[in-house]
Amino acid sequence: MIRVVVVDDQSLVRAGFRMVLAAQPDMTVVGEAGDGAEALRVLARTPADVVVMDIRMPVMDGVAATRQLCAEPGGPRVLVLTTFDTDADAFAALQAGASGFLLKNVPPEELLAAIRVVAGGEAVVAPRITRRLLDRFAGQLTPPTDGGALDQLTEREREVLLLVAQGMSNLEIAERLYVAETTVKTHVGRILTKLGLRDRVQAVVLAYETGLVRPGQ
Questions:
Q1: What is the DSSP letter of 143?
Q2: Distance (Å, rounded) from C-alpha 51 to C-alpha 212?
Q3: Residue 83 three-state SS
Q4: Which of 44, 52, 116, 183 has its CA 20 to 30 A from that of 81?
Q5: Do the bridges between strand 100-103 and strand 77-82 make them parallel or antiparallel, or are there none, so unpaired?
Q6: How far is CA 127 from CA 54, 131, 167, 202, 204, in A?
Q7: Of the candidates 148, 179, 176, which has an alpha carbon nearest to the alpha carbon of residue 162?
Q8: What angle is formed at CA 5 by the lines to CA 4 and CA 8, rounded to 5 degrees?
Q9: Residue 144 belongs to what H/E stretch?
Q10: H or E element that contains 64
Q11: 20 Cβ contact partners less than 8 Å away, ≥ 6 residues apart
Q12: Measured in whole angstroms, how far is the alpha carbon of residue 171 from the centre of its chain?
């Protein structure tokens, strides 16, 4: 059962999400909140797997709340939903640690599928979209670190991370390196584990922050 917390400043929106999610045999809504600060209080006492998070809310916005949630090891994954289709919002959400970014007008089946994907440990933002956003907003990233976090990776794992950061899928990486796709999946899993990352999106962000990949490269 996927435990979901719904965060939105409009009570009717929360009610609508609750009805859709409650009708699923593999999901249950364990809490809701009207702003980011309230969400943090709810999640402090309520275990959850996925947080469906609005961005623009009073008191504390969804980006700030997402940043705090994703800074905690073992915390819930965040799926951001917003009415604003802007690259700036998407970039802010991904940099804060969100595992997905969708518009509120997506069909219910797409929202449900996204929640299941995020709960399963994957991201619902394509690597190429992530790279496009990072290229555009690179100046807003934290200053590059010395890359020491990457020292624990093998040479092959660094190569795979570089290709992931360049927007390649597992199949494309496998074809580039002349290995099986399952081998690439294994490398990606080890990279995420060694670096303490949640998904491929965070891996791409880290690759930029450490200077492994540079805008336009």
A1: P
A2: 31
A3: coil
A4: 44
A5: parallel
A6: 22, 6, 5, 10, 8
A7: 176
A8: 135
A9: none
A10: helix 62-70
A11: 108, 111, 112
A12: 21
- Of 45-54, 82-91, 98-107, where does mean pLDDT reach its minimum? 82-91
Q: Which two tokens stand for residue 97?
A: 């640690």
The CA distance from 124 to 201, in Å, is: 9
Measuring CA to CA, which residue among 164, 168, 173, 167 is closest to residue 192? 164
> What are the structure tokens assigned to 58, written together?
């009073």
37 and 60 Cβ atoms separated by less than 8 Å: yes
Structure tokens at 169: 């899928």
Work out the number of other CB atoms within 10 angstroms of the CB of residue 75: 17
Least confident of 60-64, 163-167, 181-185: 163-167
This model's pTM is above 0.70: yes
Bridge partners (DSSP) of residue 155 are: none
Tokens of 198: 């949640």
Contact of 63 with 54, CB cutoff 8 Å = no
Single out the residue of 153, 152, 119, 132 nearest to residue 213, CA to CA: 132
